[in-house]
Specification:
The complex is a heterodimer of chains A (134) and B (544). With 134 residues, chain A is α+β, with helices and mostly antiparallel strands. Chain A is built from 3 helices and 7 strands, in the order βββαββαβαβ. Chain B has 3 domains: 187 residues, Dimethylsulfoxide Reductase, domain 2 (3-Layer(aba) Sandwich), CATH 3.40.228.10; 188 residues, 3-Layer(aba) Sandwich (Rossmann fold); 119 residues, Beta Barrel (Barwin-like endoglucanases). The chains are: A alpha+beta (134), B alpha/beta (544).
């Protein structure tokens, strides 16, 4: 059984609608959406291959923590606890102005909103930006 | 964006992608559209087939430049001089839109005084574009009832980017080419959700909907909604953060889905800054060049594994839909942030991104009418202030977001670094069709790697001959800041005196060469112009 999911291309800012073809939990193909789409059934070469990096074996699979100069695998609980503790200590010791947060133009709007909220409400800093200038 | 905010009151594409084919004249400046925004590029081609005239300003003879009615082959960074000279022609030929200027703008007289000095002959000496071509382009642009300007990083990645944008805005106001379908000023956003990230307040000086942190009313509104004090002092931009990190002022960074160790200007500075941090968290889908510097790396999931929205370049909010479950042990960024916030004593209890959007709508006037149940169709273009609002296909109808459109005279600022005997060529950087940004995604894809396997430098045959370089030779491209080794592509498609290197490739990162000079207002780095030299790829030159 193939499942078809209409979504948005992850590359440039045009906002082309794409259909991801999902078989047994794996995306096997991308095709352009026709209905309710800005691209009306067309798609560039990057878009046609939009799914390919998703299943790349090089994806990060688990949190990593640096220890004695190299990385070791960690659980989410361990990694998040460590980040929370470090951030907390730096905030207490130096204050919010010593944080810098880079948000992502590839993350969703909801995520960008939360990153802004996290920076301002939790880290107490306005030092948040993303790559709009690049 | 800082430029348009001053002149029109809204930093976004004024029109819809669909309106491109309604334009009579398209003026593309600093955008290799068919490679960077393929869909918009194909709409421009469609418009030409329907009879529209195309003007292209670019130091490279791009696919669109080859199909242009006039190709203004200018030196990188000289845009303001070119645009001012176009306005000089338009004013002298009496092609201005007097009614529009009178009804909807202010500051015309100051602009006129300034523009009178900008003869096409003066601009020719600066830009390298023939005065006659500037005249032709100006007359075609001003002669249209509906003309659209499309621009990208060729305009904005300079030490004078705000002035460049203001100059374009002046040109638009002078001819009344805004506030109607098929006529306007369109910055093309290079990433799927740059518009959304800006709209959401992932910026140092504003909260969502460009509400300024300096404004006490805004801070009070968000303090009430978020239950904490909002810091008052505007924050640092990306280049300023790295500068502060290098000096030890920034102690910790949290970098989400960005790869500054390849994408930022003057990379050796950025690497030093990253090494200098007490604590660095990198959250991404791949182990990027930036992750090498991290203390903790968190695995995020890709676009296909989560729900959400992206806002495209024409301000269209569209639904991203989850196709598969998060792979391996990855999580969506929003969940990671929420869990981290909770562990730091600030609970974020969202169960789905739609609840976050409801909160956004309640705090952001331009998104007031956005909710997931309205996004099942083709999406909605913001501003969309309330539930019954249909969205906004084009901006500034009847009046500007700031009231009147404002003319601001600007002059030409030379690039921060000029060529000299030691570094006689101008380097400009950009993308190619087959790759995307720092290549973390596209360089995992075999087909795209076959099409464009690695870095290169484009050089004009006249320059290549002088340097004794043939097509395919390995050469060093050297600036005052660094050096990379790449094969030469000798091609007529690049202006004499200019060379081009794509910035996708970490193994020969163009940004080891680029200069970190910034625009004083927008803080954009001058990635599109610096001075370089090219040396034969011998061992001797490699060690120097």
């Amino acid at each position: 059984m193939t499942k078809y999911v209409k979504t948005i291309c992850p590359y440039c800012g045009c906002g082309c609608s794409i259909i991801l073809h999902v078989k047994d939990g794996k995306i096997v193909r991308t095709s352009p959406a026709v209905k309710d789409s800005i691209n009306k059934g067309t798609l560039c070469i990057k878009g046609m291959l939009a799914h390919e990096f998703v299943h790349s074996p090089e994806r990060l699979r688990t949190p990593l923590i640096r220890e004695n100069g190299s990385f070791r695998e960690a659980t989410w609980d361990e990694a998040l606890r460590m980040v929370a503790e470090k951030f907390h200590k730096i905030k207490e010791k130096y204050g919010g102005l010593t944080f810098g947060v880079l948000s992502s133009a590839r993350a969703t709007s909801e995520e960008n909103y939360l990153i802004s909220k996290f920076s301002r409400a939790v880290l107490a800093t306005n030092n948040i930006d993303h790559c709009a200038r690049l | 964006m800082a430029g348009l905010a001053q002149t029109m009151g809204a930093g976004a594409m004024t029109n819809s992608i669909d309106e491109i084919t309604e334009s009579q004249v398209l003026f593309v400046i600093g955008s290799n559209t068919t490679e960077q925004h393929p869909l918009i590029g194909s709409r421009i081609i469609e418009a030409i087939k329907k009879g529209a005239k195309l003007i292209v300003a670019d130091p490279r003879r791009t696919y669109l430049a080859e199909r242009a009615y006039v190709h203004l082959c200018l030196l990188p960074g000289t845009d303001a001089a070119l645009i001012n000279a176009m306005m000089n022609v338009i004013i002298n030929d009496g092609l201005i839109n007097e009614e529009f200027i009178k009804e909807r703008t202010e500051g015309f007289e100051e602009l006129r005084q300034n523009i009178l000095q900008w003869t096409p002959e003066r601009a020719e000496r600066i830009t390298g574009v023939k005065a006659e071509d500037i005249r032709r382009a100006a007359r075609i642009y001003a002669g249209a009832e509906r003309a659209m300007i499309l621009y990208c990083m060729g305009i904005t990645q300079h030490n004078c980017s705000t002035d460049n944008v203001i100059a374009l805005s002046n040109l638009v106001l002078l001819t009344g080419n805004v506030g109607k379908p098929g006529a306007g000023l369109c910055p093309l956003r290079g990433q799927n959700n740059v518009q959304g990230a800006c709209d959401m307040g992932a910026l140092p000086d504003v909260l969502s909907g460009y509400q300024k942190v300096k404004d006490p009313g805004v801070r009070e509104k968000f303090s009430r909604a978020w239950g904490v004090e909002i810091p008052e002092i505007p924050g640092l931009t990306v280049p300023e953060m790295f500068e502060a990190a290098e000096k030890g002022i920034i102690k910790a960074m949290y970098i989400i889905g960005e790869n500054p160790a390849v994408s930022e200007a003057h990379l050796s500075h950025v690497e030093k800054a990253l090494r200098n941090l007490e604590f660095l968290v990198v959250q991404d889908i791949f182990f990027t060049e930036t992750a090498r510097f991290a203390d903790v790396v968190l695995p995020a999931c890709s676009f296909a594994e989560k729900d959400g929205t992206f806002t495209g370049t024409d301000r269209r909010v569209q639904r991203l839909r989850k196709a598969i479950e998060p792979l391996w042990n990855s999580k969506p960024d929003w969940q990671i942030i929420a869990e981290l916030a909770a562990r730091m004593g600030y609970p974020m209890t969202y169960t789905h991104p739609s609840e976050i959007m409801d909160e956004i709508a309640s705090l952001t006037p331009s998104y007031g009418g956005i909710s997931y149940d309205r996004l099942e169709g083709p999406g909605i273009q913001v501003p969309c202030p309330h539930k019954d609002h249909p969205g906004t296909p084009y901006l500034h109808k009847g009046s500007f977001a700031r009231g009147k459109g404002k003319f601001i005279p600007v002059n030409y600022t030379p690039p921060a670094e000029r060529t000299d005997e030691k570094y006689p060529l101008v380097l400009t950087t950009g993308r190619v069709l087959y790759h995307y940004h720092t290549g973390t995604m596209t360089r995992k894809i075999d087909f795209l790697n076959k099409k464009c396997p690695g870095p290169f430098v484009e050089i004009n045959p006249a320059d290549a001959q002088k340097l004794g370089i043939s097509d395919g030779n390995e050469v060093y491209v050297k600036s005052r800041r660094g050096k990379i080794k790449v094969p030469a592509r000798v091609t007529e498609k690049i202006k004499q005196g200019v060379v081009f290197v794509p910035f996708h490739f970490a193994e020969a990162a163009a940004n080891y060469l680029t200069i970190d000079a910034l625009d004083p207002v927008a803080k954009t780095p001058q990635l599109k112009s610096c001075a370089v030299n090219i040396l034969a790829g011998s061992e001797e030159n490699g060690n120097s």
